[in-house]
UniProtKB/TrEMBL annotation:
It comes from Novosphingobium piscinae. It comes from the Bacteria. InterPro entries: DUF1697. This is DUF1697 domain-containing protein. Signal peptide: none annotated. The lineage of its organism: Bacteria, Pseudomonadati, Pseudomonadota, Alphaproteobacteria, Sphingomonadales. SUPFAM superfamilies: SP0830-like (SSF160379).
Length: 181
């Protein structure tokens, strides 16, 4: 069995209220084991046979729609993928609460990423860098002050995404390490 993390977008925001107990129940009902939630924003650790994560993403998006009538993008990463994501963060000099990884539905095209960076440059001070099925964003002045929204990014890249700050990703990785020791 491999250990995975599902990152749900649009949970407990914009009227999509869902308890983490209900989310765990849905995973267990689908036959997943070792189900735990970390932080009340839709981060689920679970065990499952080793397999490509894109099929799991589709399964969980369907599960959310069927069981809870919530349309949600879901990014699934393995423990090693999450560790690599954190290790590749180019903004280690930034504040852990302001540096985010936007987990994407696919690998951003280099031309689209360059266009995103150029289009956003006059709009704000954020730093943006590409990663493996992710963007790294340093919201220098804070997310609440930023004009760099997920919708702006998704339109330019043609990919869906859900973001977590580095502090949350570190907590999730620590929880994952506890579960595997």
């Amino acid at each position: 069995m491999a250990r995975y993390i599902a990152f749900f977008g649009s949970i407990n925001v914009g009227g999509n209220r869902l308890t983490m107990a209900d989310l765990r129940w849905a995973f267990e009902r689908e036959g997943f084991t070792g189900v735990e939630t970390v932080v009340a924003s839709g981060n689920v650790l679970f065990d499952f046979d080793e397999r490509p994560t894109d099929g799991l993403e589709e399964l969980f998006a369907h599960m959310m729609a069927e069981r809870f009538d919530i349309a949600s993008f879901v990014a699934v990463r393995s423990g090693p993928e999450l560790a690599a994501l954190l290790a590749a963060d180019p903004f280690t000099d930034g504040d852990d609460a302001r540096v985010h990884a936007l987990l994407l539905s696919g690998q951003p095209d280099r031309a689209a990423l360059d266009r995103l960076i150029a289009d956003h440059a006059p709009r704000g001070a954020e730093r943006i860098a590409g990663g493996a099925r992710a963007l790294y964003i340093d919201y220098v002045d804070g997310v609440g002050q930023s004009r760099l929204s997920n919708a702006f990014i998704e339109r330019r890249l043609g990919l869906a995404g859900t973001a977590r700050n580095r502090r949350s990703l570190q907590r999730i990785l620590a929880k994952l390490a506890e579960a595997t020791t």
